[in-house]
Structures are given as structure tokens and as C-alpha cells.
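Summary for the steering committee. One of the milestones for this cycle was to obtain a three-dimensional model of the protein with FE2/S2 (inorganic) cluster bound, which we needed before selecting residues for the alanine scan. The sequence and ligand used are listed below.
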Amino acid sequence: MDISSRRKFLTVSLAALATAAGGATLYPLFRYLAPSRSAESGQKITLQLADIPEGGAKYFELNGTAAVLVKSKSGSLAAFSAVCTHLGCIVQWQKGQDQFLCPCHGGLFSVAGAVLAGPPPKPLEKLPFVVSGDSIVVG
Ligand code: FES
């Protein structure tokens, strides 16, 4: 292999490496910034009312995203995306306190999804649901 061939081989190898590194860096950024397909997919999930104790919560996945159905101490139902509106951690239901705590930065949400404390800029995203007999259809 002469110097010209080595130089060409090195140039092609570095270009391939730079392309791979760029793709590895940009793809996660694209996935993070791209809108979720879940909002348009229109899937629904059916849960049993008996599976949610008073003051408790039931976590599930809806369209590939963590979601939660809560029954407050007063018995009212609400469904939310369980994804924190700050940086996307999954909020945890605080049984007995009727509120959600985000473990990442201490964001606190009410049983209605409103921001009570911490850095989250918006309330939890509400999900539509319908109670039908002993079932709840979310989505
Ligand atoms: S990600 Fe929830 S408070 Fe930061």
C-alpha cells in the first residue's frame, strides 16, 4: 500500500467514523424532540374499577407512555400521563397524601394534576376516560 492509498483509506475511515458518531449523537436528539406518535394513535385501555383502591392509583401503559388512573380519598377518578412535565421522569403516587411526587427534582402535583411545588412548568397531561359499569376506558 503506497502513501496515497493509505491516505485515501484513512480519509474514508475517518469519514465513516464521523458519520457513525454524528448519527449516534443526533438520533437520540431527534427521538427526544420528535412529537410522540402516541397522541395520534387513538388507542384505549380498559381497566377494572375494582383494581383501584380508594386513595390509590393504577399505573399502566397507554400508546407506549406511562399513564396513571387515581381514585382520590373522596372517591373521584382522574387519569393522567405519568410523565412529569419538567424533564420526563415518571411521577409517583403518594398514597394518603393525594398527590404525585416526581422523584427526579421534587416536583409535586395535586390529585387534579396541578403543579403544587418544584420545577414542573405545566400540570400533568389529563387523559380522557369513561366509566362503563365496572370498567373504565382510558384514552
Ligand atoms: S423531571 Fe419531574 S421535577 Fe424534574
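Key point for the committee: The first helix runs from residue 3 to 33.
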